[in-house]
Amino acid sequence: MPVSLARKTLKEIRIIHGVFLLSTLLYIAVPIFAFKGRPRALPPIFPLGLGIVALGNLGIASYLRSCQLTPSSEALRNNQEDAAAAKQWRSGTIVSLVFCETIILFGLALRIKGVPWSVCGIFYAVGILFMLAWTPKLDLPPE
Q: Which domain holds residue 108?
């Protein structure tokens, strides 16, 4: 029995999601092994500014998810071979994962600049939590 386009797309996106999660582990390991120097004092406005930008990223990502994923997942639920809906669902999912990854990269940049883990860890945790919360899923009828 052939696999539907929606199921193929879901499988592809889950692989991409796994790669994003694995790259997060590398972003944690890089500053541990490559930057062992003493933390430098940065003005507190720097992490605060990146935190505001990160909140904006989450807002944009949430908006894009609601605009792209909700209608396309509904269309795929009704017709699993709808190529336009599969493309829109795929792109919406990837864009939201990229926004999560951006927040994690903010944490990496702060750590490289010498900001303590207690601050950088917040960026890592928020990015990882949203990436896990936004795990790709489609409510498809059983085959």
A: 5-27+47-133
